[in-house]
Amino acid sequence: MRNHGTALATRHQLVQERVEAMRAIWTQERAEYHGTFVDFGPMLSNPKPIQKPYPPVIVGGSYPYAARRAVLYGDGWYALTGAKYGDEFAFIPKFYEMLSAAGRERSSCPITICLYPEELDAFAPDQIGALRRYEEFGVSRCIVGLNPEKREAILPVLDHWAEFMRVAR
């Protein structure tokens, strides 16, 4: 972070200001933004994004810290999961409470999770049931995570996921 001029203690405020500044640039003809870390006067920037009102900003990280930031300025939350982050089936309802307290609908900030093979294996033998449970809890997307491995190790994992997705439909 230091290499990029970012102080650890203020990184979250910096990201928030950069997101707010990007949204201003994306949506205003003559954008300007004045924050503690991001500051610019009226400027033109074209072309504007084709997505309206702007591309979604997905905030990634664990509960509760990243969840708070997702509620504050995100268009989605990429929730870190796994044993070291706690039981996601416990923190998902808490995230929805945070959205509600902020006056936001669940649909305004969908949840994405990433499952790695070893996490999915923890749900054996009912892996499909585990994904359906995520769906019942309102998770919008599950992304397949792959560990850095050589081809001979990754291809069987991809084959497993392909079969799994075929059966899960």
Q: What's the layout of helices and strands?
A:
Elements lengths: L10 H17 L3 E4 L4 E5 L14 E4 L3 H9 L2 E4 L8 H14 L9 E5 L1 H5 L5 H10 L2 E6 L6 H18 L1
Structure notes:
The chain folds into two domains: about 1-55, no CATH class; about 55-169, Rossmann fold (3-Layer(aba) Sandwich). About 45% of the residues lie in helices and about 15% in strands. The protein is built from six helices and six strands; from the N terminus they run H-E-E-E-H-E-H-E-H-H-E-H. It has helices at about 10-25, 65-75, 90-100, 115-120, 125-135, 150-169, and strands spanning about 30-35, 40-45, 60, 75-80, 110-115, 140-145. The strands form two sheets. The protein has a four-stranded parallel β-sheet with strand order 3-4-5-6. A two-stranded antiparallel ribbon has the order 1-2. Strand 4, helix 3 and strand 5 form a beta-alpha-beta unit. The longest helix is centred in the last third of the chain and has 18 residues, at about 150-169. The protein starts with 10 loop residues before the first helix and ends with a helix. The mean pLDDT is about 90.
What are the salient characteristics of this protein?
169 residues, alpha/beta, Rossmann fold, 2 domains, four-stranded parallel sheet, two-stranded antiparallel sheet, 6 helices, 43% helix
